[in-house]
Design a protein that fits this description.
Largest sheet: 3 strands, antiparallel
Strand content: 5-15%
Order of helices and strands: HHEEE
Structural class: alpha+beta
Number of helices: 2
Number of strands: 3
Shape: elongated
């Protein structure tokens, strides 16, 4: 009887070391390409801003109250938001 076929290894392709080598080569060429072509970057000047006036917003504190009836008071004054009947 021939038992050699039971002990023969089937060929396998192991790609993990190949992926490691490819990632190393990719990183190597990216780093080298940056030093070979240093002038290929684009120079960008950010926009400048100008303030023409010394306007300062007035900070004012006021309260907004909504009571149980649904009425709205702003700074102690009752606000009426009924729609106008324009046609």
């Amino acid at each position: 009887m021939d038992f050699r076929h039971l002990f023969e290894e089937k060929p396998e392709i192991i790609i993990i070391p190949m992926v490691d080598v490819m990632l190393f080569l990719l990183a190597f060429f990216v780093l080298i390409a940056g030093s070979i072509f240093p002038g290929s970057s684009v120079k960008v000047e950010p926009p400048e801003s100008y303030q023409k006036s010394k306007f300062r917003a007035k900070q004012e504190v006021f309260t907004i109250v909504i009571d149980k009836k649904g009425e709205i008071f702003v700074g102690g004054n009752k606000m009426d938001f009924k729609p106008s009947k324009k046609r």
